[in-house]
Every structure is written in structure tokens, then in C-alpha cells.
Amino acid sequence: MMNTFPYQFIAIEGNIGAGKTTLSNQLAEEYGCRLILEQFTDNPFLPLFYDNPERYSFPVELFFMTERHKQLQEELSQTDLFQQSIIADYFFIKTLLFAKNNLKEEEYRLFQRLFNVLNSTFPRPDLLVYLHRPVERLLHHIRKRGRTFEQDITGTYLEQIQASYLEFFRTETAIPILIIELEDLDFANEIAAYQQVKDLIFQEYGPGVHRKQP
């Protein structure tokens, strides 16, 4: 490890197919950080949800929330939280943002009450990074990685998710939020592109939203 990672806890967020897990892995491997990866494929309701969203939206979101809470509670409560840097490829707030798009109004109100109770105990990240890509590029990545249950995801759905994130960012003033405009930048396979993204992440940011382009 050549350099010290500048954060104790950061979260890498983004829409489906943005590359958040790839970037999290790259940073964790280079800097020896502890890595928290979302275990979304374990959700037994997810394939059913993509086939019939109206029927399975509440169980799929409830399962996501309880599993994310369990994982983050276990990972972030360990005694070495401030001795070894942590990188997570999601932030717990995504639970509420996806639910807002997928649930009926009365279901969402109940879900939000449960979320607020669970969310109150988590530490906030030192930096929240949001990887922003055009919807067309997201769809290309989704098709390329070939997860069967994702192939029916539409551009409209991705636009709704994106809008939810951006709306949340406008209201979050307590932590630094870095939105990186990636377009078609391939940091997974191009060292120079990865370095560009990393240079942006390693800058100092105050609370609020910061938009940057490599």
C-alpha cells in the first residue's frame, strides 16, 4: 500500500449498472480497506419483483432493508471502525429511495417509519460518492453483465431511481456528497480513467453537493 486512504468511512453509490461495486473493489484492494458489498442477489423476492412489481414491491423492499440493516450493523459496530478504513458500495438511504419509487403511498408511509427507526443508529460516511451515468450507458452495462432478473429493467425505471437520488441530495446538508459525471468513462479497464476518478475522490469537500467531471 503506497499511500494512506484519506477517509475512515466512505460510501460509493449510483444507479443500477453505474459501476459502484467495481470501484469499491478497486479502492479497497489498492488501499487495504475493509469492504462492505451489498448482498442483493440473496433477495428471494427480487426475480419475482421484476416480473410483477406491484405484487412483490413491499416484500422485496422490506427484505432489502432488514438485510442491509443487519449487514451494516454488524460491519460498522466492529471495534476497528476507526482503525481501518471502510468502503461500502451502498448507503442505507438507498433503501428509502428505491422504496419510494416502488411502493404504494400507504405502504411507503409505513416503510418510512420503520426505516427511520433503523437508520438512527448508523454513523454517516465521511464522503458519499455518487457515480452518475446516462441511462443509455446504464442499460448497456446491465445487458453486458447478463443478470437474468435485471434484463427487464427499463430506462424509465432507471430515470425514476436517478431522480430520487438527486432529490435526496438537495436535502442532505450534513455530509459531503460528490457526484462524478462519468458518461462512458471505463475505470474498470483503463488505469488512467481509474486514476482520474480517484483524484476527484481524494480532494477535500465540505458538506453539501459537489459535481465533478474527470
From TrEMBL:
InterPro entries with a match to the protein in the record: DCK/DGK (IPR002624), Deoxyribonucleoside_kinase (IPR050566), DNK_dom (IPR031314), P-loop_NTPase (IPR027417)
SUPFAM superfamilies found in the cross-reference section: P-loop containing nucleoside triphosphate hydrolases
Source taxon at top rank: Bacteria
Keyword rRNA processing: no
A Pfam family per the record: dNK
Gene3D superfamilies: P-loop containing nucleotide triphosphate hydrolases (3.40.50.300)
Residues annotated for ATP binding in this entry: G14, N15, I16, G17, A18, G19, K20, T21, T22, L185, D186, F187
Gene Ontology annotations for the cellular component aspect, listed alphabetically: cytoplasm
Keyword set includes Chaperone: no
Residue span(s) of domain Deoxynucleoside kinase: 10-201
Protein keywords: ATP-binding, Kinase, Nucleotide-binding, Transferase
GO molecular function: ATP binding; deoxynucleoside kinase activity
Protein name from the UniProt record: Deoxynucleoside kinase
Organism name: Haliscomenobacter hydrossis (strain ATCC 27775 / DSM 1100 / LMG 10767 / O)
Lineage, opening ranks: Bacteria, Pseudomonadati, Bacteroidota, Saprospiria, Saprospirales
